[in-house]
Design goal:
two-stranded antiparallel ribbon, F-box-like_dom_sf, 23 strands, nucleus, alpha/beta, ethylene signaling pathway, F-box/LRR-repeat protein 15-like leucin rich repeat domain-containing protein, 21-stranded mixed beta sheet, about 675 residues, single chain
């Protein structure tokens, strides 16, 4: 008013054009009488907005109110009001809730909140996420979950499980989980894979889980860089029943968090640390001292972890059953300690231990402490040599499974000595062990022929056809599964030897063997006395229809899986003999074969059928068109998977028609 009327009457410097409904009359300095309905309505709305609301209270006061709401149903309703209420509710520890008798009869404070809500995206209050929109707040039950692939809820191993991935991994969702899962008996398993880039998971959300989910037993966090020791300490303080902890790609986690877990979670049985660059030895030492139930340890790519941490952990945790160490800066000392103290270990895995030498693996076996070891996997460790392999064979009397990958210094001599010492060996896998030859393999089979069931040779350049083989050839009737994959020098001559040495084969995988021909396959098939069940010949580009004809004639009655992908010389004739001779076939892959419409259309006249076929792949069969679609529909009533990718002559319309009539089948096109 002072600014408007000072100086008496209006002057020419201020021009006012009042509305007809506005009366401007009176002496200077007198307030104008305003009767415009629009202005009055705005004033009334302003007065209404000034009505006192619970929202004007500071967080401290609202915290005191909410902690006096102890009924689970009312707490869930309060959490649905807004993000502010939700986060405040989730910050209340259970010990801070004021319990009162018959508290469910009290007035629900959520009704005192404003009707509007600014938060969105909550679903399923009872399952840990709540529906909040501008009109209605709901709290549906767990059965209403939408089954989104990036977010799931269910029960796994008897636990109530929540899974968050990518953009759905936020603090708000974790806060909702901490409130909503109480009604369902409490959260037992939480898995977080990745996080939202702008508003992802931080210590706030994980701390909410710690306060609201004391029954949590399994926590797995992958690629969440914002969490630190603060929230891990909260987990330790609030989740004393924690049994499994998996922290991968969490750069802010240090020994402080692990020490807190060790001191407060005595039931911890499984620990996985991967790419946690700030974790040192102290955390592992604390875990070993305090977690007497520890059974499984997996440490990968933690550069500050050394001999002191690993040795102390293994020496103190007497109940360890499984140890996996990868890309660590440890030396021979750690393997010597494992060989001496790991008396209960049944499974060992070492990968990329560049500072472990020959003495380390020698000490691992000669310490003679691995009396219960059943499975050993060593990958890309230059310290694994013949002497170490021999010591392991002598020091591990019940070893059943051995896997060696990229162990370049293992030769035929070491393998033979090991085979003689390891009398219980059932499975042998060699990958990129280039000093191993066919002679070494045959000698090993002659030494462990009583127990060996599975033999796998992958990318071993030394496995090749040889004229001077062992005479007489050993016969290993125990071998049921044989894999020789991507060995470019292995051909039909070697395949004929395989058939004589292993006459009881049921599963064979010869994928990528470009040197084998029809004659080698025929020789193998004739020597296999037991019916072949699974056959993988993918990438064997020199095979023709004759090989498939012999295969299906001799073993078609027992075949359940046949993979011929990439065998370009196979034509419609192969498809016909498969259909006629393989009634038990469940999985057929003829990708990139020379299959045409003529072959598929003529199938109904071939007799037989594939009543049990579940998966069929014709990917890359460029000569198959829409004409084949009606026949494919009738091929098998049990089909659940059909791959028509890169079949360029099959139209989208035909695929749609096929999908409508085969609604139980997943079709890739």
């Amino acid at each position: 008013d002072e600014d408007l009327c000072q100086g008496g009457h209006f002057t020419s410097n201020f021009i006012l054009s009042p509305s007809p409904s506005v009366d401007v009359d009176g002496p200077p300095r007198k307030r104008s009488r305003i009767s415009d309905p629009l202005i009055l309505r705005n004033q009334e709305q302003h007065l209404q907005k000034a009505v006192p609301s619970i929202e004007i209270l500071p967080d401290e006061c609202l915290f005191e109110i909410l902690r006096r709401v102890s009924c689970i149903r009312d707490r869930s309703a309060c959490a649905c009001v807004s993000k502010r209420w939700l986060l405040l509710q989730s910050s209340i520890r259970r010990s801070e809730i004021v319990s009162r008798p018959n508290n469910c009869n009290f007035v629900n404070v959520s009704k005192m909140a404003p009707a509007t809500n600014t938060s969105r995206g909550f679903r399923h209050a009872d399952s840990g996420a709540m529906d909040v929109d501008d009109e209605k707040v709901t709290a549906p039950s767990v059965e209403a979950d939408d089954g989104d692939s990036e977010e799931g809820i269910g029960r796994d191993d008897g636990y109530l499980t929540r899974f968050l991935q990518g953009k759905k991994s936020t603090d708000v969702r974790l806060a909702a989980i901490s409130i909503g899962t109480v009604k369902l008996g409490g959260l037992g398993k939480l898995l977080i894979r990745g996080t939202d880039a702008t508003r992802g998971v931080t210590d706030v959300g994980l701390s909410a889980i710690a306060r609201g989910c004391p029954s949590l037993k399994v926590l797995s966090i992958w690629d969440v860089p914002s969490i630190s020791d603060a929230s891990l300490c909260e987990i330790a303080q609030g989740c004393h029943q924690l049994e499994k902890l998996d922290l991968s790609h969490c750069p802010m986690i240090t020994d402080r968090g692990l020490v807190a877990i060790a001191e407060n979670c005595p039931n911890l049985s499984s620990l996985t640390l991967e790419s946690c660059p700030r974790v040192r030895n102290e955390g592992l030492q604390a875990i070993g001292r305090s977690c007497s139930n520890l059974q499984s340890v997996n440490i990968n790519d933690c550069p500050l972890v050394g001999d002191q941490g690993v040795a102390s952990l293994v020496a103190c945790a007497a109940g360890l059953v499984k140890i996996r160490l990868q890309a660590l800066n440890i030396s021979d000392l750690s393997l010597a300690v494992i060989g001496h103290y790991a008396k209960s270990v049944t499974e060992l895995s070492f990968m990329g231990l560049q500072y472990v030498g020959e003495r380390g693996f020698w000490a691992l076996g000669n310490a003679r402490g691995l009396k219960k070891l059943k499975s050993l996997a060593v990958s890309f460790c230059k310290g694994m040599t013949d002497s170490g392999l021999e010591a392991i064979g002598l020091g591990c009397p019940v070893l059943k499974h051995l896997c060696l990958r990229r162990c370049f210094f293992i030769s035929d001599n070491g393998l033979c000595v090991f085979a003689r010492a390891a009398g219980t060996l059932e499975s042998l896998q060699l990958e990129e062990c280039n000093q191993i030859t066919q002679t070494g393999i045959l000698s090993s089979l002659s030494d462990c022929k009583a127990k060996l069931k599975t033999l796998s040779l992958v990318k071993c350049m030394g496995i090749k056809d040889q004229n001077g083989c062992l005479v007489p050839l050993p016969v290993c009737n125990s071998v049921r599964s044989l894999t020789i994959r991507d060995c470019p020098c292995f051909g039909s001559q070697g395949l004929a030897v395989v058939g004589k040495v292993c006459p009881q084969l049921q599963h064979v995988d010869f994928s990528g063997l470009t040197g084998i021909t029809d004659s080698g396959v025929l020789s193998l098939m004739e020597n296999c006395r037991a019916g072949l069940v699974k056959v993988n010949l993918s990438g064997c580009i020199n095979l023709t229809d004759d090989a498939i004809t012999h295969l299906t004639t001799l073993h078609g009655g027992s075949l359940q899986l046949l993979n011929l992908g990439g065998c370009r010389r196979l034509s419609d004739e192969s498809l016909k003999v498969i259909l006629a001779n393989c009634p038990s076939l469940q999985d057929l892959d003829m990708s990139k074969c020379s299959i045409t419409d003529h072959g598929i259309v003529s199938l109904p006249s071939c007799g037989g059928g594939l009543p049990d076929l579940q998966v069929l792949s014709l990917s890359g069969c460029s000569q198959v068109s829409d004409k084949s679609v009606p026949i494919l529909r009738k091929l098998s009533s049990s089909l659940v998977g059909l791959n028509l990718q890169r079949c360029n002559l099959i139209s989208n319309k035909a695929v749609g028609w096929l999908g409508e009539r085969m609604w139980r089948c997943d079709i890739l096109s």
